[in-house]
Amino acid sequence: MTIGDRPHVLVVEDDLAVRDVLRRYLEQESYDVTVAADGPAGLAAARDLAPDLIVLDVMLPQLNGLEICRQLRETDGSAVPIIMLTALGETDDRIAGLTSGADDYVTKPFSVKELTLRVGSVLRRSLVPAGTRPVAGLLTDGDLTLNPVARETLQAGDPLPLTTREFDLLHFFLRHPHEVFSREDLLRQVWGWEFGDHSTVTVHVKRLRHKIEADPADPTRIVTVYGLGYRWDPQS
After folding, report:
1. Which of 39, 56, 103, 197 has CB 3.0 to 4.6 Å from 65, enough for a Cys bridge?
2. Mean pLDDT (whole number) for 38-55
3. Any bridge partners for residue 180, and if so which?
4. Which strands form 222-225's sheet, in the order they lie side by side?
C-alpha cells in the first residue's frame, strides 16, 4: 500500500547482509521498505501490508519463495508485482519462479543498482494515479476489454486478474494485431531488456494463454508462428 507519494516495497530475504543492503538502497530511492527474514513472515507481511511490490528470494526458511508466490497468485488472487531473486545459473529456479507468477527475476550475485532499476521499472507500469478512469483509449477484442490508463482488463464483463507483465504483454499484443514478434522482440519492447533469458517470454505467454484462451493447448488468440515467434489473431 503506497504511503503518501512513496511506494511501499516488501523485501523477503533470509540473508541479513543482503536484506540490509537492499533496504538501504531502496530507502535511498525514496521507497518505504518492510523486510522479512523467512517465508511465513514474508507471506504474512504481503497479506497484511498490501505492498506495492515484493522482492522475494527463492530459498527461504520454512516456506520458499515459489510457494509464497503461488499462494499469493492462486489462493489470494493478488496481482502485486513480484521480483524473484534466484541463484546464478539455476535456470529451473527462474522458470519455476516465472511459472508460479513472478513478474521479473534477478540472479544472485546481483547488482543492487540493477535491482533498484528493475523495481522502478515495474512500479512505473503498475502504479496508476488515483482519479478519473477515462473510457477513451479502450482496447477491445471479442470478450476482452483493456483500459491502459486504469490498467484494468475485463473478460466477458468480469475483471480479469493479470500480473504487471501479463497486462503489459496483452496490451502490446492488442496494439499490434496480425504482426509476428520474436521472443527477442517482445523481451525488448515489453520488458525493456536489450538482452535476457527468452524463457521469460515463453512462460508469460503460457500464463496469459491460460487466462484468456478457451483452450490454452490450442490457442486462437496468441498464435505460435513456428520458427519466428508469436502473433495476435483478433477474435472480432
Report:
1. 56
2. 95
3. 231
4. 180-181, 229-232, 222-225
